[in-house]
Amino acid sequence: MTQQSRDMSRRRLLFGTAALGAGALLAGCTSNEAEPTAAQTKAAETGGNAEPGKRVTIGFSAPAADHGWIAAITNNAKAQAGAYSDVEFKTVEAGADAAAQRAALSTLLSQKPDVIVLLPHDGKELNAFGLEAMKAGIPVVNLDRAFPDARAYRTQIKGDNYGMGVAAATYIIAQLQAKGVSNPIIGEIPGIDSLELTQERSKGFADTLAASGFKVANRRPAEFTADSGQQAATGLLQALPKIDAIWNHDDDQGIGVLAAVNQSGRKEFFMVGGAGSKKAMEDIQADNTVLKATVTYSPSMASSAISLARLIGQGKGMSDLVELQVPKEIVLASETITKENAGDYLKLGF
Amino acid sequence: MSDATGTTTPERPTDLPAQSPPVSKAGTEAAAHRETPRSGLSFWKGDSGEGARRNLGLIAVLVVLVIIGIATRPDLYGDSNWVWNNFLTILKLASVVGVVTVGMTFVIIGGGIDLSVGAIVALSGVWATTLATQSFGAGGMIFTALVVGLGVGLVNGLLISYGKLVPFIATLAMLVAARGLAAEISQKQTQVSNNSTINGIASTNVLGIPLLVYILAAVVIAGWVLLNRTTFGRRTVAVGGNPEAARLAGINVKRHTVMLYALSGVCCGIAAIMLTSQATSAQAAMANLYELDAIAAAIIGGTLLSGGRGTIVGSLLGVIIFSTITNLFAINGLTTEAQNMVKGGIIVAAVLVQQVQFRSVTGFLKRNKATTA
């Protein structure tokens, strides 16, 4: 452990207890690396929008959860803000639930930052805060969990959950058709089933499969953790004596899914992951497990959110676009990582 | 052994050797029991005729579940290899929660409750895997998990016995704090275990049976012997049944309570290694809601939530029923929501049956006494 990370630990200890409980709400996945890689942020280049401009104070809030994807979100945001000399970064921990986050955000609001970037526990629950901040003249950048009310945000940037399902299904269909499998048995291991994002992912998967005449034979939800993934996969493998393909929504629970597959000695199928953790990419690259691909849902969106917030604060647009202002909404594409391109994406793994 | 806090009511100055309590003490200790001590009953019956009947009922439930499985998936049950494999899978699924439940059964029989077991499993697992990254090896990881489990259990016990906290509150606080500490230690990341010995535990078979099942069997047998064949077990029942009577009988109730929570903690440490091996990693959010699974299994197994009564075999059957239901729902592709509703229904039904049985048994005894007197 380096001195720096020990200092970080000490600070985190204070928030340790508050971190509890929020984990169940979260999407994403983790690996052993806590700090963002350089590739997950964008270095301030010379010229264009990156030139230091008007000083902007950005307030930031994301749930403090025991889940690596959220940890990566916060780390990326901090690192990206640090890359700009004209950005002052004020962060508040969001606590364990929507009420706690609302309380934290109201203290942030009273400090009157130029822009607020937040990843809400639930966009529906914090919609009212977005409206309040916008009414007070502070633009809000919503990160990943959309506000239902368009007046509650200046810009939102999010991952494409439906698109993840589409990308996973597209890869699976292509592989199966190349093998000439006509009536495949496809398994699915989603994350927490009651979350909207999980339902969107599953819908994208099912819709795309249906368009090719395929369907999911069995789906066993897990809880975004490795041990729940192991148990869900054990059930799935027991239910389907022969499988052609599995989509596991989350690379973090995928550690457990792969463990269950190895423990069962089954390898007649291939698996697609989700989110794009470093470990999953390494496994894909090594090509010695059933994991052959993963579809991205990258926490690098936090870095982009900070960049957008800075531009909004300075009244600039995105220099590659014709528009003079930052767009209202950006949805990331879910990209498919296979053995062929894993080398390129490895730097984005978290 | 003297009372550390020096509370107002002095306890017996010395706790006499476990193996040969003097006659007078043994007499009062037995009097503190709610039920007569067992004698020469077979292993699975546990410690009373009532427990035996209940266990028969649980086995009947298991048989029904298997019949439903055969009826709904005759294609799978037609393959004898699959059936054997599935049997082992159910036992493997039961193994981790089973070990936790043995500890929980002791705590509940002793009149307490331990809500922190899932968090202890997570903390032990995370601590052990964090050590692994510093290459302490498999022995170091196992040692760490057991020591952390024991340590947290001791803290629980001391808070409850000497801090006079209600067990519900003390272990609830520990649930929150231990998960927080686990998140802190793991830096909110999944700690992947690179130790092939640890990872290999879950995939090792001995004589065709998974090692995890042997571990479960060893813990269950040890628990059964401890509860039914030792002074410690008799005292546990006495403390849970009537702590005041137990204290008057010369049992150091406080110290005994500490040991019960420590025992539960050690079970969690064992479970943490098993779970880490299964998932080849540990995470602060692992073993989510295991406390509820363990409590539910113990209750279904006939352990009285108010303490003083329960059997290890009943708890084991409770855990196996739950993992059989999970398996049944998985092979039929049914949702986990439906599965949870069924689990809830079974818990309610089991407690209802328990109350009816208990009332009728005590009623019968009273009437019997009245007529014979």
UniProtKB/TrEMBL annotation, chain A:
Presence of keyword Signal: yes
Pfam family, one: Peripla_BP_4
InterPro entries: Peripla_BP_I, SBP_2_dom, TAT_signal
Signal peptide (UniProt feature, chain positions): 1-34
Species name: Micromonospora cathayae
Similarity comment: Belongs to the bacterial solute-binding protein 2 family.
Keyword annotations from UniProtKB, A to Z: Signal
Residues of the Periplasmic binding protein domain: 58-316
Cellular compartment(s): Cell envelope
Protein name from the UniProt record: Substrate-binding domain-containing protein
UniProt keyword Electron transport present: no
Top-level division of the source organism's lineage: Bacteria
Automatic annotation (TrEMBL), chain B:
Protein name: ABC transporter permease
Keywords associated with the record: Cell membrane, Membrane, Transmembrane, Transmembrane helix
Annotated InterPro entries: ABC_transp_permease (IPR001851)
Localization per record: Cell membrane
Keyword Transcription: no
Biological source species: Micromonospora cathayae
Annotated coiled-coil segments of the chain: none
Segments of this protein annotated with the region Disordered: 1-44
Membrane topology category: Multi-pass membrane protein
A Pfam entry, by short name: BPD_transp_2
PANTHER family with a match to the protein in the record: ABC TRANSPORTER PERMEASE PROTEIN YPHD-RELATED-RELATED (PTHR32196), RIBOSE IMPORT PERMEASE PROTEIN RBSC (PTHR32196:SF72)
Main localization, broad class: membrane
Segments crossing the lipid bilayer: 55-73, 93-123, 135-159, 165-185, 206-227, 258-277, 312-331
Compositionally biased residues, Polar residues: 1-11
